[in-house]
UniProtKB/TrEMBL annotation:
It comes from Solanum verrucosum. Belongs to the UDP-glucose/GDP-mannose dehydrogenase family. Pathway: Nucleotide-sugar biosynthesis; UDP-alpha-D-glucuronate biosynthesis; UDP-alpha-D-glucuronate from UDP-alpha-D-glucose: step 1/1. InterPro entries: 6-PGluconate_DH-like_C_sf, NAD(P)-bd_dom_sf, UDP-Glc/GDP-Man, UDP-Glc/GDP-Man_DH_C, UDP-Glc/GDP-Man_DH_C_sf, UDP-Glc/GDP-Man_DH_dimer, UDP-Glc/GDP-Man_DH_N, UDPglc_DH_bac. It comes from the Eukaryota. Residues 302-380 form the UDP-glucose/GDP-mannose dehydrogenase C-terminal domain. One of its GO terms (biological process) is glycosaminoglycan biosynthetic process. The active site is at residue 246. NAD(+) binds at residues 61, 101, 249, 316. This is UDP-glucose 6-dehydrogenase. GO terms for cellular component: nucleus.
Length: 390
């Protein structure tokens, strides 16, 4: 029996391991995490890591808030800590699989950590197996993935490790859906995929501003564009901007990598995707204020929906935060309704600084006062009652 241990029981590790356990009867799966509330039913991290043949690393890689690369580079603190622990407790050869979205060449750093911290002459093979899950449909994406990407070294040992992981996935994924590459291609492919998707959103949002200036209808324009077989319609709906834990973080990471490699023009190109996204949110707030005689001071504005997309409770990088902060800055009174997001989370999001949501700081208790101009209600009709704008 192959034994798998996944370090990290969050949005990626939890669903991925649940599906592997369901689909692979010959695989024993353990999930461990440093978060006590998240893993109350599990314990003994080191025991499972020691016994595993394959160790998935699905730990957080937040954007750095200070130091070199602050605001763009990925913080690999949790990665390094997990790698050191693997090296310390391992007593047999292991395949270590990076599941988190990480900068290109992270494997080299992890390999050094594993090699230098292990005193047992153990052989570690490292693979890159980035996730391509959409929030709200993760299990469906795992059941029927459009592709599974596995990157490994081009040595005999690396190729053997790729085959071991491939054998796990082929128990339910068609072999022609599994793509194998070198390590660097796999690491960069995840950043590239998210950058391209975010680019499409920023492109249509930029077009929406031009449509409003010229009298064109952005819905009609995006429909025409989407009928082009080379483009297709996905991610072409104009909106307030993209949100979620991946797009902005991964593009900023890509910008930092370009800068570090002396590719300033490329860095500036990808920065524009973020700038258009920020511009779209500011433009939306300005339109709201302008439509209400250029002031929302003391006026009730109803906000229907706070998560970054429908049918989920995930508020990470949701455009609603910037919209609400913009309106609060003009002294509006906000009434917010989202059936999947609780009041504590909304108050926390609106009180946080940028990027704090991705660090343990966001789990600390909030002061009981919250933001006084905000009321969070659990009924859409109450939210909109007597509102000046919805």
């Amino acid at each position: 029996m192959v034994k798998i241990c996944c370090i990290g029981a969050g949005y990626v590790g939890g669903p991925t391991m649940a599906v592997i356990a369901l689909k692979c009867p010959s695989v024993e799966v353990a999930v461990v995490d440093i978060s006590v509330p998240r893993i109350t039913a599990w314990n003994n991290v080191e025991k499972h890591v020691c016994e595993a043949d394959i160790v998935f690393l699905s730990v957080n890689t937040p954007t750095k808030t200070r130091g070199l690369g602050a605001g763009k580079a990925a913080d690999l603190t949790y990665w390094e800590s997990a790698a050191c622990m693997i090296a310390d407790v391992s007593k047999s050869d292991k395949i270590v699989v990076e599941k988190s979205t990480v900068p290109v060449k992270t494997v080299e750093a992890i390999e050094r950590i594993l090699t230098h911290n292990s005193n047992n002459g153990i052989n570690f093979q490292i693979l890159s197996n980035p996730e391509f899950l959409a929030k709200g449909t993760a299990i469906e994406n795992l059941f029927k993935p459009d592709r599974v990407l596995i990157g490994g070294s081009e040595t005999p040992g690396g190729q053997k490790a790729i085959q071991v992981l491939k054998d796990v996935y082929t128990q339910w994924v068609p072999e022609d859906c599994i793509i194998t590459t070198n390590l660097w291609s796999a690491e960069l492919s995840k950043l590239a995929a998210n950058a391209f998707l975010a680019q499409r959103i920023s492109s249509v949002n930029a077009m929406s501003a031009l449509c409003e200036a010229t009298g064109a209808n952005v819905s009609e324009v995006s429909y025409v564009i989407g009928k082009d077989s080379r483009i297709r319609p996905k991610f072409l709906n104009a909106s307030v901007g993209f949100g979620g834990s991946c797009f902005q973080k991964d593009i900023l990471n890509l910008v930092y990598i370009c800068e570090c490699n002396g590719l300033r023009e490329l860095a500036e190109y990808w920065k524009q995707v973020i700038k258009i996204n920020d511009y779209q949110k500011i433009r939306f707030v300005n339109r709201v204020v302008a439509s209400m005689f250029n002031t929302v001071s003391g006026k009730k504005v109803a906000i229907l929906g706070f998560a970054f997309k429908k049918d989920i409770g995930d508020t990470r990088e949701t455009p609603a935060i910037d919209v609400c902060k913009g309106l609060l800055g003009d002294k509006a009174k906000l009434s917010i309704y989202d059936p999947q997001v609780n009041e504590d989370q909304i108050q926390r999001d609106l009180a946080m600084k940028k990027f704090d949501w991705d660090h343990p700081l966001h789990l600390q208790p909030m002061s009981p006062t919250g933001v006084k101009q905000i009321s969070v209600v659990w009924d859409a009709y109450t939210t909109t009652k007597d509102a000046h704008a919805v």
